[in-house]
Amino acid sequence: xxxxxxxxxxQGHGVCAGTAPDLxxxxxxxxxxxxxxxxxxxxxxxxxxxxxxxxxxAIVLEGA
Length: 64
Known about the structure:
single chain; alpha+beta; Alpha-Beta Plaits; two-stranded antiparallel sheet; 2 helices
């Protein structure tokens, strides 16, 4: 399973980076990017929490 950020939906709130800083980084414009790798079982909870907390619904779990 992988986590993606839909760039066109992201408005740069940064909630994902605050929720799961090991999975998300903020670009210079404030929009989020996800670390591109298969999620480990320990990362999955953070990815799900970020997905649930995104106000723009820009976080997508692929392969879920």
